[in-house]
Specification:
By secondary structure, this protein is mainly alpha-helical. It has one domain (about 15-425). Helix content is about 80%, strand content about 0%. The chain contains 19 helices and no strands. The chain has helices at about 1-15, 20-45, 50-70, 75-80, 90-110, 115, 130-145, 145-155, 160-180, 185-210, 225-245, 250-260, 265-295, 300-325, 330, 340-350, 355-370, 375-415, 415-425.
Length: about 450
């Protein structure tokens, strides 16, 4: 019994470490978001037509892509530089101000030129000014957490993300119920997504982050001298993340444009498959996001923490893949009519396989980020997105959304050899590098 008690105590001590604790918070946030998002889709697929769901999620993912473009890499840079910055509030506020301005500008450009950029989404002019206002709100609501969440990670308090996600996801469900009373069709679905995200980011900025970042109050602030040392690191991550976003958030829009009359329905099927399969990707992404935050701390034990992140991923992911493969059909049968089970089951099973290269990309990509190398991330992201989009376009035309799902798996696998060449060396025996240059203090 004494030996068992020591083992249990050691395991519990490991779980309480910042790496595991924050990884579990990030996983919990993603599981909560996906689980309650699952219920949101259950409601949406019953209250709205498949075509309306397809158009709404395509619009929201397009706006999410615009939000990704507005990040400017400042979220990842916040994790890397905030821990050793004395003036934390001005740094965070400068980042959210810049990201917010970029999000508004990009959303306005998109709205004005939607007939050129995305003709299949030009229905946004039918409900003026509701759609344009909602698009700007959605862009801000999706963009700002890129900094606010990461500030929480940098402070070793990933529960900020967990509570924001719970707020967002809890609001989506009642909004999906009540929106049909005021707005019919695709507008109701989009507003439920946009308004819930908007309220959640306000709660995060004014309630959640101040609890873990003492003295923080959100306010417009432009202190460019604070982010100048971060810029070289952030711009490389920005390019890499934007390229990745192009290869993931534009897929439903591609379905609308390529498949013609069947596009909206198939976009809804593919989106549901993405949401369900995305539950698996949560595991490695959360583990290595937490590892990156730990590796950015002073005197971090990077080799030990990386091994812990790999072990946690292996422990949770392998049984999860088996469960998702076996129970794909029963899970999808919960959505609306049986058409979702018929239309999304094969794409889901194919997308489940992408979890394996996602692990490799997280392991190797995090090594690159910790060592502050941006160029390999850009090259790897470009390989991933080009393969996904080009092969996806070809296979979508010939094999429908099943082919697009296969392109996603191949696209995730494509950069792994390159990442291995540039990041195969582990952190064993590598001294902890001081985080330099620090942001300039006033």
């Amino acid at each position: 019994l004494g030996g068992t008690g020591r083992v249990v105590g050691r395991v519990w001590g490991e779980v309480k470490s910042p790496l595991y604790r924050n990884a579990l918070y990030i996983m919990s946030a993603s599981i909560i978001g996906s689980a309650l998002g699952f219920f949101f889709l259950l409601i949406a697929t019953r209250f709205y037509r498949e075509t309306d769901v397809g158009y709404a999620v395509a619009l929201f993912q397009t706006v999410s892509f615009l939000a990704a473009l507005s990040h400017l890499g400042l979220g990842v840079a916040t994790v890397r530089y905030l821990p050793e910055t004395r003036e934390k509030t001005p740094l965070v506020n400068t980042c959210i101000t810049i990201v917010g301005i970029a999000a508004v500008l990009l959303s306005v450009v998109f709205i004005l030129g939607v007939g050129v950029w995305a003709p299949s989404l030009d229905f946004i002019w039918q409900n003026f000014p509701v759609y344009p206002i909602a698009i700007v709100i959605a862009a801000l609501a999706v963009a700002l957490p890129a900094v606010l969440d990461q500030a929480g990670y940098a402070m070793r308090h990933a529960e900020v993300l967990t509570w924001r996600t719970l707020t967002l996801s809890s609001l989506k469900i009642p909004l999906a119920f009540f929106m049909p009373l005021f707005f019919i069709g695709r507008l109701g679905v989009f507003l439920a997504l946009a308004l819930s995200a908007g309220i959640a980011v306000v709660v995060e900025a004014y309630v959640l982050l101040p609890r873990v970042l003492p003295g923080y109050r959100p306010a417009p602030h432009l202190g460019f001298h604070r982010i100048r040392p971060m810029f070289r690191f952030s711009i490389g991550n920005y390019v890499a993340n934007s390229v990745v976003a192009a290869g993931s958030l534009t897929l439903t829009l591609m379905i609308l444009n390529v498949l013609g009359p069947d596009g909206p329905k198939d976009a809804a099927f593919f989106y549901v498959a993405q949401i369900v399969a995305g539950l698996l990707y949560i595991i490695p992404t959360a583990a290595f996001t937490s590892f990156f935050a730990e590796a950015s701390q002073k005197d971090a034990s990077r080799h030990r923490d990386e091994r812990r992140a790999i072990g946690l991923t292996r422990l949770l992911l392998l049984p999860a893949i088996a469960v998702f493969w076996v129970f794909a059909q029963p899970v999808l049968s919960l959505f609306g009519s049986g058409t979702y089970a018929d239309g999304a089951v094969l794409p889901l099973r194919i997308l489940v396989l992408a979890a394996i290269p996602v692990v490799a990309n997280n392991v190797l990509g995090t090594r690159i980020k910790v060592r502050k190398k941006s160029a390999p991330l850009i090259v790897g992201s470009a390989i991933m997105s080009v393969v996904t989009l080009v092969l996806g376009f070809v296979l979508l035309r010939s094999n429908g959304i099943d082919g697009l799902a296969a392109a996603v798996v191949i696209g995730q696998t494509a950069p792994v050899p390159y990442y291995y060449l540039v990041a195969r060396r582990s952190f064993q025996g590598e001294p902890t590098e001081p985080i330099e240059p620090k942001p300039i203090e006033p």
